[in-house]
Design brief:
- By secondary structure, the chain is an alpha/beta fold.
- The strands form four sheets. Strands 4-12-11-10-7-5-6 form a seven-stranded mixed beta sheet, sandwiched between helices. It has a four-stranded mixed beta sheet with strand order 1-2-3-15. A four-stranded antiparallel beta sheet has the order 13-14-17-16.
- The structure holds pyridoxal-5'-phosphate.
- The site of pyridoxal-5'-phosphate (PLP) has 14 residues, from helix 5.
Length: 417
């Protein structure tokens, strides 16, 4: 039976991969073909994805979208209810879901300081909104970002993303932006040049290798940014909303950011949506002119319904998240001790972990073997020697043990003895 399924799936997927090769990105298609060993993804439930040949894999990847696992029941039900009523907004009329989501995000993030919300569709457009508002609100143009930071690939967001791989063919990018090391002297020097509208940072750099910035440095950076009259934007698209524990890492650290950005798992892994949660001062230009930054699908009711249900589910399961995080940390540290010739170190927080290999080639080899062996992970877009594990909050103890077994056996395979 397994062979029959494989044959049948093989026939179907040959056409799919030919379409990708012909009409989409051949390189991406080839990667997906190798990862799936000719099969494609067809369904998902919780931490498990099923392929067209019937094989099941544990999903610790999905670039962070599946914090609640695949098709979380509360989110699916909320989307179905909204779909039966009004999935898209007329935009000239108000609906109840977008404002309900805005209130809920304010309540969860930092109600005393951050009372305004702009809703987008992906991480990069939340970044764009924050940068535009900071420039208009201050009348200044420069933005400071951190080396190793990732904020998306649209032209504006790319100006603050640090990886040369994505920037070099496009330079000069929009607006004056500078990248600083996580070093206070560097920050001071750049701020002294004046005209800085905002500093954008990720408290834990996700694509940069799941690297937590030093809280003491962040505190100092925020202080000097404030002194220079710049807004502080905490991009938590990947690591916020309880991926790493708190709703906002910056708020939890007492940094009092002027804006926190959410995305990825905000839509419960079902709908695309992002949010900028910010202070009145940063949002002021949009109060002055509501059309300064509008978009057809901003506040899309179907996405907002998904996000409201996702926030409930994330809050309900926060306790399990903390328990799982402790087990993962223990397991990964033991794994690093068993494979010292392969792993330089493991580092992370909560449900986001980076496995840092001796070379990018070694990381690539492991990555290529993990999916066929039964575990999906994500590469780091800004650090090729690090592989990311982004396990869903709904991962069972058995699934975690199975995932660790896959890692262990793939490590033994690529580096025998
Ligand atoms: C911290 C951070 N900001 C922004 C983005 C861009 O998000 P999107 O790919 O949804 O545009 C990402 C994506 O990985 C991210 O990790």
């Amino acid at each position: 039976l397994a062979e029959l399924m494989l044959d049948a799936a093989g026939a179907d997927t040959r056409e799919t991969f030919a379409r990708i090769r012909t009409h989409m990105s051949p390189g991406q298609g080839l990667g997906q073909k190798l990862m799936g060993r000719n099969a494609v993804e067809v369904s998902g439930e919780g931490a498990v994805v099923t392929l067209s040949n019937g094989r099941e894999v544990i999903d610790f990847g999905s670039y962070g979208v599946a914090l609640l696992g695949h098709r979380p029941s509360g989110v699916v039900a909320a989307v179905e209810r909204q779909l039966a009523e009004l999935p898209a907004s007329t935009r000239v009329l108000a609906n109840t879901v977008a404002p309900a989501l805005a209130s809920r995000l304010v309540e969860l993030t930092d109600p005393a300081r951050l009372s305004r919300v702009w809703l987008g569709q992906d991480g990069a457009d939340a970044v764009e909104a924050a940068l535009k508002l900071a420039r208009v609100a201050t009348g200044r143009q420069r933005v400071l970002a951190l080396r190793g930071g990732f904020h998306g690939k649209t032209l504006g967001a790319l100006a603050v993303t640090s990886s040369t791989r994505y920037r070099s063919s496009l330079e000069p990018l929009l607006g004056p932006a500078a990248h600083i090391a996580d070093d206070l002297a560097d920050a001071r020097r750049e701020l002294a040049r004046g005209q800085t509208a905002a500093v954008i940072l990720e408290p834990v750099q996700g694509e940069g290798g799941v690297r937590a910035l030093d809280p003491g440095f962040l505190e100092d950076l925020v202080r000097v940014a404030r002194e220079a009259g710049a807004f502080v934007i905490s991009d938590e698209v990947q690591v916020g909303l309880r991926r790493c524990g708190p709703v906002s890492l910056a708020v939890e650290l007492g940094l009092d950011p002027d804006a926190v950005l959410f995305g990825k798992h905000l839509g419960g892994g079902v709908m695309p949506i992002s949010a900028l949660v910010c202070s009145n001062a940063l949002y002021a230009p949009a109060v002055h002119d509501p059309f300064l930054h509008s978009a057809t699908f901003s506040g899309h009711p179907l996405s907002c319904a998904a996000a409201l249900a996702a926030l409930d589910a994330i809050e309900e399961q926060a306790g399990r998240g903390a328990e799982l995080a402790a087990s993962i940390e223990r397991e990964l540290e033991a794994l690093a001790r068993r494979h010292p010739r392969l792993l330089v170190e493991v580092h992370g927080l909560g449900l986001a972990w980076g496995l840092e290999f001796t070379t990018p080639q070694m990381a690539g080899e492991v990555l290529a073997e993990l999916a066929p062996a039964g575990l999906l992970v994500s590469p780091c877009l800004g650090r090729a020697e690090t592989i990311r594990l982004l396990p869903p909050i709904v991962t069972t103890d058995e699934q975690l043990a199975a995932a660790v077994d896959v890692l262990d056996s793939v490590f033994r395979m690529v580096m025998p003895g």
